[in-house]
Specification:
By secondary structure, the chain is α+β, with helices and mostly antiparallel strands. It has one domain: NADH Oxidase, CATH 3.40.109.10. It contains seven helices and four strands. It binds flavin mononucleotide.
C-alpha cells in the first residue's frame, strides 16, 4: 500500500495493511491505514502559532489519559496547567539554564549544531502542561508497582502517548520538553512532594506539519526501524 506521500507504509517500520490477515475484533482496514498514518505523521512540535486552543478541545484530548493503561489501574498521572506569567517565567528560566548546561557538554561540530536547535516551544505555546507521576498513590493498592515502582512513571508515559496521538488527530501539536531541572520545576510549581516530573508539554497549533522529525532534517539523528525488531533468545 502506498500512502499519500508516495512512501510505502512499511518504510516507517510498520506492516502494510494488505499483508495482514483479517482478525476477529479488528478495526476496519481503512481505519487501520489512517491509524498508521497518524503514527507516522505524529511529530514533536517546537514551532507554534500563539493563537489560543479552545478549552473544550484540550479537555477532549486530555480525556485520552482516562483510557490509557496504568499499572494496577493506579492512574498515577497528575497534570498541572502552567498558566500564570510567573509560573511560565520560572519554567522558561529553568529550561534556559538547563539548555545552557547541556550545550556545555558538547564540543566542536556537535556543539555548533546543538546551539542551532530549537528544543522547546515554551516562549510561544499557548498551553503548557507539567505532567507528574504520583509516586505514592494508594490507587491500585500497589499491584505491580510494589515489585517495580518505576511502572507508575511508565504508566504516565502511556497516558502522555495517548494524549499526544489524540491531539495530533485533532490537528494540535505537542512538544515534549525534557531539558529541565525536574526538582527545581516541582519546587517552583509547588507540587506535592511525592510527585515526580515526567514531562513538560507545549501544546498549540503548529506553524507547519512536517513529514520528518526535526532532528533528522537538521542532521542530528536518524530513525532506525531495525531497532523495533526483537532479538530472539
Ligand atoms: C521522553 C522524550 C523527551 C523529549 N525531550 C525533548 C526536548 O527536551 N526537546 C525537544 O526538542 N524534543 C524532545 N523530544 C522529542 C524528540 O526529539 C522527538 O520525539 C524525536 O526527535 C523524534 O521526532 P518526532 O517525535 O517528530 O517523530 C522528546 C521526546 C521524548 C519521547
Amino acid at each position: 500500500m502506498r500512502e499519500e506521500t508516495g512512501r510505502p507504509a512499511t518504510e516507517a517500520g510498520m506492516t502494510a495493511e494488505t499483508e495482514e490477515p483479517a482478525a476477529a475484533g479488528a478495526f476496519p482496514r481503512a481505519f487501520r491505514a489512517e491509524l498508521t498514518r497518524l503514527f507516522r505523521l505524529r511529530r514533536d512540535v517546537r514551532h507554534f502559532r500563539e493563537d489560543p486552543v479552545p478549552p473544550a478541545l484540550l479537555d477532549r484530548c486530555l480525556g485520552a489519559f482516562a483510557s490509557a493503561p496504568s499499572v494496577g489501574l493506579s492512574e498515577p498521572w497528575r497534570i498541572l496547567s502552567v498558566a500564570s506569567p510567573e509560573a511560565r517565567q520560572k519554567a522558561l528560566a529553568n529550561f534556559t539554564a538547563s539548555n545552557r548546561a547541556a550545550l556545555a557538554g558538547y564540543s566542536g561540530e556537535k556543539a555548533r549544531l546543538y546551539a542551532s536547535l530549537k528544543l522547546s516551544g515554551m516562549r510561544e505555546a499557548p498551553v503548557q502542561l507539567a505532567v507528574f507521576c504520583d509516586e505514592t498513590t494508594a490507587k491500585g493498592a500497589g499491584l505491580g508497582a510494589t515489585t517495580m515502582p518505576e511502572m507508575r512513571r511508565y504508566s504516565v508515559v502511556a497516558g502522555i502517548m495517548a494524549f499526544w496521538l489524540m491531539a495530533r488527530a485533532k490537528g494540535l501539536g505537542v512538544g515534549w520538553v525534557s531539558i529541565l531541572d525536574p526538582e527545581r520545576l516541582a519546587r517552583d510549581l509547588a507540587v506535592d512532594e511525592n510527585w515526580r516530573l515526567v514531562a513538560y508539554l507545549c501544546i498549540g497549533w503548529p506553524k507547519a506539519w512536517e513529514e520528518r522529525p526535526e532532528l533528522e532534517k537538521v542532521g542530528w539523528e536518524e530513525r532506525n526501524p531495525a531497532l523495533a525488531r526483537p532479538i530472539t533468545r
